[in-house]
Amino acid sequence: MRIAWFSNIDFQEGNGANSRLKALANGLKENGNQVFLLFLSSTIFNSNKINKKSKGFFDGIYFNYLSGSVLRSSYLIIRFLSYTKAIISSSILLIKKRNHFDVILIYSPRLLFFGHIYLLAKLLKIPLILEKTELDEKTKTVTILQKVISYFDRLDPYIFKYVCTHLIVISDKLASHYSRFLPKSKITKVPIVVDLKRFETIDLNNSSPSFTVGYLGSFGSKDGVNGIIKGFKDASLIIPNLKLKLIGFNPTKKETNLELRKNQLNGQVEKSGQITYEQVPQWLKKCDLLVMNRTNHDYSHFGFPTKLGEYLATGIPTICTRVGDIETYLNHNENSFLIEPDNTKQLTEAIINRYENYESFNSIGQKGRQVALSDFDYNIYIPVLQSVFEEAVKSKK
């Protein structure tokens, strides 16, 4: 089966979405499919130009930035022109290759960005599979442009029922939300996925405490990074030599640095900046406690952070907030340590608890890895996706 997979993420390096696409694309390829990853433009995650190639192969999978460039301009008008070029290029590609692609898949579809593909899939009678991993309309908006985009996001569900052959979602709450617009038979859940082979070399059994708390991911308001900083500061007053690693590209580093200065944290905190896909296990391995501190916001509850799958795959004990689908898979004090969102006191107590009960927390980490093995291994979901694609093709015939 030949799959045209459209998205707006940064490939070959980028955020958690990058890891999800790589895992699923590789799995589909290993299952005998041809996968073509097609990106309309780069995002803020490539601001430091970590991606160099705009076209080529990654692990045997073809990819192409249809704007012709991986660079993201700081000027809005240039970004607009670049996106216009990508829209024209993607339209020409689909029309010319209308008998080549068996299905079109869009990761994180949004009307304002992918509306032309919705229309072309309908006109060209190519099955259209959509994958939602966030409820974008719940994103906090500040600027006029953000508000315009959010308005179009709210129209998406009404359009999905006319253009969408099948919808893939990452969480139960997203499935429930879209079941108001689509039959449940047209909605399939594929939760967070992880390539477990990336983390096989991590072994904590014989390691001594490093007293290092780690956070990996984006630094948006939903991620509660300021709460992590405050909880860490309070815990460091009880646990000597405690260190914090903030891992990943931070588009709001001024605000983060201000919070660090406010809490008088300097030498205790290391900021990695953008790291490569291959470096993720290396950086997580430096920590003996990982934190996912998503806030009590609708955006947090509808999504499901890929970093959690990576955290658990390491076998390193993980603290996470009770948001979204977390409690569908994780049990408090068994395979993770759960706290309430927006509760800095509980986070502080959990960090202290980890180092005062080191061996028992190690057991929590190992049981968390078992959850990653049983529930988040990407190989589990390749037959599910294959079935969705095959049914979509049959329905069009």
Description:
The chain contains 14 helices and 14 strands. A hairpin with a 2-residue loop joins strand 3 (55-58) and strand 4. The protein has helices at residues 16-30, 76-96, 111-124, 144-163, 172-178, 225-236, 253-262, 279-285, 298-302, 306-314, 326-329, 344-356, 358-376, 382-396; strands at residues 2-7, 34-39, 55-58, 61-65, 103-107, 128-132, 166-169, 187-189, 212-216, 243-247, 269-273, 289-292, 318-321, 337-339. Helix 6 (225-236) packs across helix 12 (344-356). It has two domains: 2-193 and 378-396, Glycogen Phosphorylase B (Rossmann fold); 196-376, Rossmann fold (3-Layer(aba) Sandwich). With 397 residues, it is an alpha/beta fold.
Strand content: 15-25%
CATH topology assignment of the largest domain: Rossmann fold
Radius of gyration: 21 Å
Helix content: 40-55%
Spans of 5+ residues with little confidence (pLDDT < 50)? Answer: none
The profile of the biggest β sheet is: 8 strands, mixed
One letter per element, helices H and strands E, the order comes to EHEEEHEHEHEHEEHEHEHEHHEHEHHH
Quickly give the structural class.
alpha/beta
The CATH architecture of the largest domain can be given as: 3-Layer(aba) Sandwich
pLDDT averaged residue by residue? 92
Number of helices: 14
| Overall body shape | globular
